[in-house]
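Budget justification note: compute hours in this period were largely spent on complex prediction jobs such as the one shown. Inputs:
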Amino acid sequence: MTHVITEACIDCIHRSCVKECPVDCIYEGARALYIQPDECIDCSACVPACPEDAIYHEEDLPELLHRHLEDNKNFFAQTLSGKSAPLQSPGSAKRIGRLGVDTPLVTSYPCRQATCT
Amino acid sequence: MNSNADASTAPFVRPLPGSHRNASIVRVAVVGAGPAGLYAVESLLEAAPDFCIDVFDRLPTPYGLVRYGVAPDNQKMKSVTRVLRNSFNNEARVRFIGNVCFGVDVRRADLLKFYDAVIYATGAPAERRIGISGEDLPGSYGAKEFVEWYNGHPDIAHHNFLLDSQHVAVIGAGNVALDVARMLIRSPEEVASTDVPDRVLAAFRNSQITDVHLIARRGPAQAKFTPVELRGIGSLLNADIVVRPEEMVLSDSDDIRIGANRELRTNIAMLREWAGVPLQGKARRLHIRFLRSPVRILGEKRVEGIVLEGNEQLADEHLCGTGNFETLKVNMIFRAVGYRPLRLPDVPFDEAKSIIPNNRGRVLNENGQLTEKEYVTGWAKRGPSGTIGTNRSDSAETVCTLLADIPARKVCNSSDPEQILIFLDSRRVNYTNWMNWLRLDDYETQLGRKQGRPRVKIPDLRSMLELSRNSDTSDFAGDD
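Corresponding output:
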């Protein structure tokens, strides 16, 4: 089980969830944040922290957002554009910093800035 | 030193002998090695490379409520320790000083003498009471005792809970009540996959419990369960969840709140689902009751029952008793109606708010003025609310306040780091260090490996100390 950041984060990236995560497992791409599923301890602290209501426990994911479960995993399991290897499990988002690259799914979204709170 | 220095501030401005050696080092004491304290250490390490930190705990073990509060069947949550322990890798800057009781072994004045700043992260070690008759009968317990028992806390190592009652009541509507109810109803097989002490596992193997009644004063929309905890009881192997449809009462204002709050919506959806499911004939039942107030506990020599009164929720969210009473025949009652911070010896305390009074983490004295170099974080600062992660941002705020104050004070105490240890030795305090904890940690983990469990906790303080100090780990790590 894990938590999942969905499309409402894209282009908004408030990062308020990052400060609440007790294990620092919320990583920053370019336009969105991603949760490392193996590092997440399922505490849910991030869910109420998000002003966009973008974060779900995987069992609560609405059907339409279900692809983000795989997509959050992909951010760590696949080699992202311009990188030489998958990120895997770095153990600390702070240490890695902003990656500056997203998954193909997030990249494919048109700019969502206008919808941010 | 000039004699016109104010006596009350003199200790903070007068450089101690030897301070030239570490003129730029700022020394911080953190009291309490739970999540709040350790997140403060993490923040300090990141922001201030010239700080050295000593973390005190009254136990020889770190992690506070992660080790002794988080339920044993939630090992994933307990794995937060892999992050909390990181600060101690920085041996040159962070020390653990365990088995030291604040106010007894070391007093406030001592810490203020040895350190440039003190951060209290002592949590909320007291419990609220319900305030009804019979609350002190044998068989009526605070949830804290039970939680500490199944988590192997040394304070309760010599008490055993005989789970010899068929019906048990748990009073409360928060995550602690839910944890206690869930643990009580767990099958021995489920408990056997956790890290509980051997004696606790034996008690669960002999459990006679068939029905646990979780009693909430208010309605389902007011319960303070988090969805992730509520979901946990849905996966119980051995117990049906019983929710009465007639108690799933929601007012118009509840509906508005539910519409605006996804977590609350998730909770209500789960409860409704259980309310609609017929019993599946499992061996045990967990009854979740809403709008019921405990009125009195019955029994002469021990608990024999509890009287509940039905409640109605008025439009202004106030509760009103309906005058309809029912009696549950239970022989054990656990009250989980909230933790409460305790006054620390010599440290300011706001009795009304039950916290250490503070302004963004800087401690205020009884007159509301800022104290010289004292800070607070976690439950002692804000009261018992939030999850583990809440303490990360809370401690970051306290550390931010501390860092802003430090340059203003300019001259730091910078005492020799050995002085506090020499002081503790002179008081014959049997303190432990990080290496001692690692030995105990290793012992418990190896004991667990032999039984196919994540760990087996050692609850007795004397054994904990002996194992901590035993340098020859082969003695107890053998593969017999």
